[in-house]
Protein 1
Amino acid sequence: MAALPALWKWLAGAAGVAALCGVGFLLVIQPRGLTEERILGFPAGDAARGETVFWASGCASCHAAPGAKDDAKLLLAGGLELKTDFGTFVAPNISPSPRGIGGWGFRDFANAMLKGTSPEMAHYYPSFPYGSYARMTDQDIADLWEFMRALPQSDNVPPPNALNFPFSIRMGVGVWKALYLDTAPRVAVDTADAKLARGQYLVEGPGHCGECHTPRDAMGGFISGQWLAGGDNPDGEGRIPNITPGAKDVGAWSESEIVDYLATGFTPEFDSVGGSMVSVQQNMARLPKSDLEAIAAYLKAVPAVSQ
Amino acid sequence: MKRTITAITLAATAIFATVAIAAEPQELRQEAMKQVGGATGVLSKMAKGETPFDAAAAVAAFTTMNTVAKTYADLFPVGSETGFETEAKPEIWANMDDFKAKVAKFEADTAAAAAMTFADAGAVGAAFGTVAANCKACHEVYRVAK
């Protein structure tokens, strides 16, 4: 009989531990914003510099209306559908209208870009590539904000996401963030070389190249040791190519051939860019040549992964 | 069906008189695009100054593209959607009118360029830019990611 109170005690203890774990878990997966001190520490932004950040970050590729060309890319009306294994994501309106981000302050913008957290303190899905944007400098975030808040307004209201269970539970994104959201370098390169450092920043940060070019596990995290090694097209048929030096095709390209490809959209064999890379290449073509050279240098410096 | 086969045969003959045996549409498309790629190389290198300016070579390259464009849309008969490592997306057959319109624009732009008299590499580059926009416009929506 003496064993019974002990058992109860043990059960009570276990329940307590479980409850604490539960609370701890909920705390871990809670949406977070930047601290007040952090927000106050941002530098003043500049819209002209922000335009370069805008093209480097590829915002228009998903947030402009599908098929938009040239200046129409500046109208960030949303509506593009990304049909993925997790369900269909629909890019929202992020133009500075009341239907978009018109009511936002800088704090809301910085929280979205660096923490993946909405003004209502909800998680964004990482289809919005804040997992990469979290690596952006405060200056670039501030400059981009100044540029984007001055863009034309759209009153478009795109349909909501249509995600599969359990990915439809937004709180679950907190687990993804706890596992995968950080600002550590994806790979080690010689950052004493200013060109390589710039390339690493552009590719791993605003350029968010790895979001398509790196294979993911079932939880949506990048598979370790496979940085930029290509993978299934997250949004349809075909393969996203391996762009490491170990790649069958791109691996053989010289730095200047990579620069030419990003500037003109033609491969060294004079095949043209295709699929969703068309829009990416058109963004890249707007960057200074020095940035394209930095990207090419970095792509030659990342670990070679053969397919 | 017979008409399609005739069209393909004509296209095949036009694109490579040198190929004696009948090939699958998928293979003919790939060969046609290789020809366009070759012409693109000539024009791109000339425009960038990597090769000397040669007005006749530029016109020849645009003409090669135009010859391909004239019959290219005929190389997509129903039944050639898959196989032979085709990179054509099923959207081509779902939007055949738009696909044909895009090929027609490529044909018109290459015809206009082939009819030009080029004074220097800059003029070749400008004409090439107009023509090259067609590559991306079609590949963006009608070719699988690779």
Protein 2
Amino acid sequence: METATQESLISFETHPSQYRHLRLEVEGPIARILIDNHEDGLRPGYQLKLNSYDLGVDIELADAIQRLRFEHPEVGSVLVTSAQEGVFSSGANIFMLGSSAHGFKVNFCKYTNETRLYMEDATEFSGQTYVAGLNGIASGGGYELPMACEEIYLIDDRRSAVALPEVPYLGVLPGTGGLTRLVDKRKVRRDRADVFSTLAEGIKGQRAKEWGLVDDVFPASTFDEKVNERLSELADGGYPNRKGISMDALTPVQEGDTLQYRHVSLTVNERDRVATLSMQVPDALPNIPENASDLGADWFPLRAFREWDDAILRLRFHYPEVGLVLFKTQGALEVVRDMDEQMEAHKEDWFVREVTLFMKRVFKRVDCTARSFFALIEEGSCFAGSLFEFALAADRIYMLEEEGVSVQLTNQNAGTFPMANGLTRLQTRFIGDPAHVETLVKRREMMDTETADDFGLVTVAADEIDWEDEVRLAVEERVSLSPDSLTGMEASLRFAGPETMETKIFGRLSAWQNWIFQRPNAVGEKGAITLYGQPVNPVFDFNRT
Amino acid sequence: MSISSSSIPNNVDLESNRKLQKALVAWQPAFLEWWNDMGPRGYQQDDIYLRTAVSVDTSGWAHYDYVKMPDYRWGIFLTPSDPNRTIGFGDNKGKPVWNQVPGEYRKELRRLIVTQCDTEPASVEQQRLLGDSAPSLYDMRNLFQVNVEEGRHLWAMVHLLHEYFGRDGREEAEDMLVRRSGSEDSPRILEAFNKPIDDWLAFFCFTMFTDRDGKFQLGGLAESAFDPLARATRFMLTEEAHHLFVGDSGVSRTIRKTAELMLEHDGRDVRDFGAIPMSIIQKYINEWYSASQDLFGSEDSSNSANFFAASLKGRFGETDGKSYDDNVALEGCKELQWAENGVLTNHEIPLRRAMNLELADSYRRDCEKALNRWNLNLEKMGMEKRIYLPSNRFNRSVGVFGDAHYDTKGNVITADDFAKKKADWLPSQEEKDYVKSVMVPCRKPGEFAPWITPPRKGIKGNPLDFDYVCFNQR
């Protein structure tokens, strides 16, 4: 079975001292992320010319965003700009895309989309406002990245433009949120968006501003000054009272089939195409002190959720054939409940809030992962509050009917972790019965299996006689089904309720993009991606569906 | 309700199997309630001379004694397992057999087992009124023997649902007792099992032709890679043989009586003596044979191909070493003729899609053997009349023959012609009413109704006038 491709070498952890492409500079309340991509990418076969990027660049970007939130909470505004002359970024590297397997392309786009959303999340909830300083051409993904910033400033040098040339040049889409943000976020008129998205050379200067593609344009002579002024205004002195923590590396250890982190373990059964992702909660957790950040990177929820996040990414990229992941937890319900209650009590503390926001992003990462998830609630499980969200994020919940097996809801289930659709997982689960959600979130007692089942929190309740068979049959049956249909089915069932920009990006833009990526007009022998950079034109099949 | 080996003979380690015990605690009382409601009407408190299987070895599988039917010890028996058995056919050929349901085949196996299982209680329901018109105590006893054994087959299949399909299995097992033959709201799954069998010639035809379909279905399942299913159906096949004997000998005795009367009273209508004319017997055979052919499903079937490919259901004798050389069946075709635009046309069905047809062909050969014996008897008696099997194309509503009309020889005919000739081939309501009218009960030991000859010998070496049924209520 094919798992250990070149992608298996990818590590999702990095550190500014190890960056090969970006530079992270922090100066009081202002931070700058400078794009200066090294031509050598994650693997041979393409060169990251013109600040084009691959997954390696995006892993650095995600790291920078995360570190700014935790290690530099004093920062109030973040500039994203280029360190290369005349070019901001030319987007995702086309030769990299052209030489990647379909599954990798899909996961690459998903990861970059998540990273862009993290910038918006930091702007909205962490008081770190992202500003794009386009000191050169911003094309394709190179313009989609700025669109994820709160404000965009373009240098007016009669040369630099913003552009989305994917449709006219490549026969694919600006799939990193570009089309969606154009109309949903920047509110560009749809006919202008249509013109812009088919105009390979893009739009520069005043017109870019008029159309709402950028917030302002400044001449080269004053560009830096103007942008810095704006950064200072937005930072407004920053948050000098916040004391950042230092985030160490996770460095899990591979023991046989198990990847062992401190609190999380990932066991992969490659033969059966099933993995078990498990979180172990310590017997006791420290109380949250006056300055919560004194807890540092070792604090359980931060550490454990970083580990869970890393494991999910490894599953996505390293184990494409593992179709089903079983979620388990071990520990005491009371410990999790206490943790949730303390976090609720300290929610105004910047560090507690950052950890909570991060947990929200990890749950969303699970929601958007194209694997089946079953939560197994057994003896010794501690699916309470925050951890019960893992069960709610799963496609099915199996719960053992036995003395002592319980689940518990906490305040954290009542709105702390909204999904991409803006609703909580409980609201989404009971989309037709809001009153039931109200009842549930007020109910804080432990629930045994029968009660949890009565409240609709359990898919299958089985006693110890049936448990093994129920689970085994469900697991074996699940992994025998078509992976494509399961991906489509799960993505359709997980997000009941309203659309948001975020659900549109993953559910509409990405789904179309992934379809286009499979079509001969893009990747066939004479497709546009295949022939990109070659001296022949693509030949399209002009039948529209 | 205690669940123990003394009340439920078994070789599945029931005493220590908590899963089975849990399932049976609820199911056994429901079964008894069903048996009392839907089992043979009016004879539940009588002593019947029945055979009970108390173990799977040669001394235990046929234990004879008087028993009241509700006290019958329905047991759970599987042919002992062969630890070296490997899968004999399909894509999994050569691998070890499965002792658990593989999740990927759960839905297919469940469907196969549920469909087979549903026929067992259905036939008991269909036959529940027949005791009142039994032509002898001997025949009455045979009816009840068939009924309790269909009940045991229900137990055998339900055991598989209970043991291997978890909660779903228990729900399916419950439904076996909820569906009712002929019910408007919850009928039995297969249509043939929804019409009552209300005369004894129909009962003999049922056990001759429809139970024989069961034999071949069980034979296909006996090859299954899912070993518990293979073992359960193998043991069921030993009992099924008795049901076929009841049908085969029943029709044969009916023919013989008619022939005797025709020879004795040359030229007179046998109806004058309360017997059944040969033409009506032939029409019954036409009707039951064609309805039983329908039970095999379409001759060209992707389901049957899937079942074969997945090694879930094979052909009859798939691995006996004689019947089939090629147990993978990926190559080759079966040729079959059916009507296209009113003309018989040759068709080729890829072998794997033709697995229902393979079973149905084996079935026909088996039926022909019985027909040959009946005709040999007629010949020996000096009769010129012969009984025939209609063509497989005749009177079909399922499969490739279902879209056109054919005569009993298999020639294509128009719908008009079929309507005109129908009364020559299939029993009319008057004829069925006549058959019913001669079904006079015979309750004295050794007495037989005037439309049927006595059998050659009694049960288990007992004489024909043995008290096969002792009435306690009258």
Protein 3
Amino acid sequence: MTLEELYRLLRTGHIQTQGIVDTLHEPLIVIDKAFTVCNANPAFYRTFGTDPDGTIGHSLFDLGNGQWDIPELRTLLSDVVPKASAIVGYQVNHDFPGLGRRSMCVTARQLAIPGNNSTQMLVVFEDVTDRQKAEARKDILIAETRHRMKNLIATVKVIARQTQVAGVTGAEYRDRFLGRVDALLIAQDFISANGSNADLAALVEQCLSPVAGTRTDLVASPAVSLSENQVLPLSMVLHELAVNALKYGALAGDGVIRVAWSTELDEARERLVLQWQEVGGPPVTPPTHTGFGTRLIDYSIKAEGGSAIFHHDPSGLRVAITLPLQQ
Amino acid sequence: MASSSIESTPFEVLIVEDEYLIGMELAQILEDSGYRVIGPIATVSAAVERIERHAPNACILDVNLRGEISAPVADCLKARHVPFFLSSGYKQETINQEPAFDGVANIGKPAKPEQLVSALQALLKA
């Protein structure tokens, strides 16, 4: 190999290595054991808005407005070369000029040079501000999900406790309980699919079909959008009415459930007026006791500021439900 | 269960709870025991407004109300010396992070009815 060839070989290697360092997005610098900057890559100048003149030959602790002059970081760095140790992910929170408040992770290692016990360190800066924000958001989301799970289980326990046990078989209890849990899940799914834009017609259809199948007559009615908080109460009410119809009302015979609604103004506030009517079933007799189902209907509607009025017409149960709508 | 004094002038207990079925059961348990139930109220602002307008004798407070921590409600209750306890599924260390809940017991969620009633009796006697 001629000297010329050796020179080319070394030069190619050097250019390639420099290219890698220059391409890296992470700001990095090389400092000696007195913390003087020997080298920096373009990402460093770009990130901290500085240039070679203001960086090379200066102490790391004098850079910028002295943002790295932290006693703890100084102590850690002074150990890197003599103890061949490393600093991994030391976090510095600082208001960087032109960058704003950022969290930087500092990693420092003795520079690896084969066969040479280097006295220089490679210091890499990683901006973890966005990652930390994303992680914080994820933590909040996880905590929120856990909270919802617990509330959901607590709600299921309420349903288990409140579903009638006296005078029913185990199988009847199970079916009744699972029916209510299903109604709860339908409401949950509906909320996650539709958010705060819950269409009443779709909700009525989804709540009634598991119990009533096709034996519903949904009269064409104006489009009504429910608030997220109204979905669960109304789902439970519709479920209870449908189960009741199956046990004692129109669905116990050959009848159908007819549902229609309109909106009206009540003291300048729009409210929903929903008519539940059972037709073609066996003669109706008013119930002799009020169970959880009746209480649930009454409570749910009143809690939302509405009313549920039952008319036990011999020809079929009629229920008039009113519910204030979100402005 | 209810003493004669409760029957003559029922204690007013405010329920602050955003899960409506849980609130419904709480209300029923308390009513069955002779208390007068206010609520359930589901939001921080509505609860604070209600307490400021007329303080109840006691309160059962959920910690997370539609994504909002109920600390302002706790502060409001403390300022008016209204005894209360928490009804929350949160772990104690999570609750402890909020100074407004210092010294406030959590009966858990859902609490057993008899636990709820005895905790409330103890609260009103104290």
